[in-house]
Amino acid sequence: MYVAAKGGEAAIAQSQRLTGWRRRGDAEDAENPALTPTQIDQQLGLAVDRVMTESAVHDRALAALAIKQARGDLMEAIFLVRAFRTTLARLGAARPIDTGTMAVRRRISATFKDLPGGQVLGTTFDYSHRLIDFALAAERDGDAPPAPVEAETSAAAAMPRVTDILGAEALIEPADPAPGDPAPGDLTREPPTVPYGRDVVLQALVRGDEGFLVGLAYSTQRGFGRNHPFAGEIRMGEVAVELVPDELDFPVSIADITVTECQTVNQFAEPAGEPPDPAMPGPEAAAGPRFTRGYGLTFGEAERKALAMALVDRALRAEALGEAVGAPAQDAEFVVAHSDSVEASGFLQHLKLPHYVDFQAELDLLRGLRRQSAPADTAKAAGGGS
User: Fold this and answer.
1) How many whole angstroms separate alpha carbon 224 and alpha carbon 218?
2) Which of 22, 224, 255, 290 is deepest in the core (most CB within 10 A)?
């Protein structure tokens, strides 16, 4: 056993060398320069955004480097960045970002055509033909068209959130903090335990694998935990990150980051303990049916992830809203335990590690069972009896 383990070191070293060689590609090709993290960041930005979101580290250069190291395997890149994250010192906690003051670069709503501030299409594939553009294969430096003027606003009053508009008429459940406004949990420092608070669930969702969440969200649309969602608003833009240092009593802006926020508007729920009161219409109507919400927030431009996250978030609130629970997307323990790509990938890929002893034990067991179940004459023949 020890000889086999030691003998494998040379093979592992060669495998790593081969991986590096494959990563570089044909170094003899003059038209194939080495890919730089800057190129990945600038030209494959959506991949960088996904790695930052699911690794919970906002560092574009680091995410781009991880993508290069992983040869474009985003799940491996997420693993690399998370591992690096564990080495970082925690210097403090930032204040909650205020997406209401976002400098908006994209903002759409599927619920209202005419919004204060208007709809801003921004960057999207929504209106492009899903056809391969072969002209890109011949694209060279200097071929790109000049950058267009991109709409942007930093005036929160000019673009109120759709949920704020509905909230002004008490038509949607409020998004107030929990009584006492407790500090949110941190699943990166303390393993979550059932039952999960919504703060922990949202953390798990934002770090969850996009494909897994998209599949769960799709399942709710097909009837497995259906709650009839509308895309109330999706907005993308820059927000300020503020920190209050211990030696100061006022916030200091330490960065501007790009985020994508999605809020869904879902069908009705009755406020617990508050019977409907039709005699009190308008903003004063504290009771009666209201729309419910789902929420998603990601780093960078990750619209599909934010939308899927919002649908799953709403599905996971079914029990709290008095709805029947029976679909996978409504089971918090199932979703939180299986959405993490690093844990899922690790457990899956451990099957590639040596299991020689386990397999030999099962092989011997199977052979013994077959001998026990064999007919008597076959057993005698196998044993040489007459």
Assistant:
1) 9
2) 290
